[in-house]
Design brief:
The protein is an alpha/beta fold. Helix content is 40%, strand content 17%.
Length: 331
């Protein structure tokens, strides 16, 4: 198949491209290489992919309507894995327009490209952030998610609604994936696992939100990628139910991808301490705007569809990340 991966210089995009390389596909990746975090890390991910002869990179912004139209008409993709987005909950508090341009306009441009070129299947990244302050756990895709507490979450929920509309109106098969706290080698510097490891190895203090009383469904990158690859083959078919948010008469699907086992934040910090051999100096602070006390994925629907459950536990995953960090930054 000929595949498009948006956000290929990003954490998950790079890993998905690596995983699919050598499987008989022709892979084209795009990214705008914005400076939300260290561009050098994004360039290093692309450099890591240069050894893959079946992977090609084009620098392009999702919000560039003309450029996106030309990309789809010139390349004629079979399937699309749409992972590009302006990431980050807290960043959305100060830079809301970046989310409208990338996560709304950009997503629309992807949908239009898929519609016009009759793409067989669009897989796109949503987020656990859509669950907001949901008290029911674990979070399930049939739960109502109508009260987001950050613009990032609102934009991701909008992506799901936009995708369903295109599935319904045009018969475009779409699958949304709600990712839960992804970590691992090549990870994002703005996320806690990276920031905590960086601080511990430098002998600096770490900021711990809600005084440490938090839980996250930390999910190792390889488990995320395996889920994406398996879903790529599951092209949604028109259904017969409109009873809940994750079912439809349209060719539309929605899954959580998480570990399914939430970890207390302080336990995660202790895992980093073990892996680095350094003691954490914690600067405890109140809950931050847009943040939530816990996330927990109900992954049964994904297991039933793919027969796959995450394999990598916290100690193993953190140790792999710390080893990569030491090697990448020559520490």
């Amino acid at each position: 198949m000929k595949l498009l991966i948006t956000g290929m210089a990003g954490f998950i995009g790079h890993a998905v491209a690596r995983r699919l390389s050598g499987q008989g596909h022709e892979i084209v990746g795009i990214d705008n290489l914005n400076d939300y975090y260290d561009v050098a890390l994004k360039q290093a991910r692309l450099a890591d992919l240069k050894a893959c002869s079946d992977v090609r990179f084009i620098r392009l912004d999702l919000a560039d309507r003309v450029g996106m139209e030309s990309l789809f008409s010139d390349e004629r993709f079979d399937r699309v894995i749409h992972l590009a987005a302006q990431a980050g909950v807290r960043y959305s508090l100060d830079n809301p327009h970046a989310y409208a341009e990338s996560n709304l306009v950009g997503h629309l441009n992807v949908l239009e490209g898929c519609r016009r070129q009759r793409v067989e299947h669009l897989i796109y990244a949503s987020s656990s952030s859509v669950y907001g302050m949901n008290d029911k756990v674990p979070f399930a895709t049939h739960d109502a998610v109508d009260h987001p507490i950050s613009l990032y979450a609102a934009a991701k929920k909008a992506n799901e609604l936009m995708s369903h509309t295109y599935s319904h109106l045009y018969g475009l098969p779409t699958t949304g994936l709600r990712f839960f706290t992804v970590y691992g080698p090549w990870g994002r510097p703005d996320m806690a696992p990276f920031k905590f490891t960086q601080a511990l190895l430098a002998g600096e203090s770490i900021q711990v939100n809600n005084y440490g009383d938090m839980q996250r469904d930390f999910t190792y990158i390889d488990d995320i990628v395996e889920g994406v690859v398996r879903v790529l083959e599951l092209v949604p078919q028109p259904g017969s139910s409109t009873a809940s948010p994750d079912t439809s008469t349209a060719p539309y699907a929605l899954y959580n991808i998480g570990n399914g086992r939430p970890v207390a934040l302080m336990d995660f910090i202790r895992a980093i301490e073990r892996a680095t051999g350094c003691e954490a100096k914690c600067d405890f602070r109140a809950m931050q705007p847009g943040d939530v006390p816990r996330t927990w994925a109900d992954t049964e629907a994904l297991f039933e569809a793919t027969n796959y459950r995450p394999q990598v536990g916290i100690d193993e995953g953190v140790a792999r990340f710390v080893n990569w960090y030491r090697d990448f930054y020559k520490i």
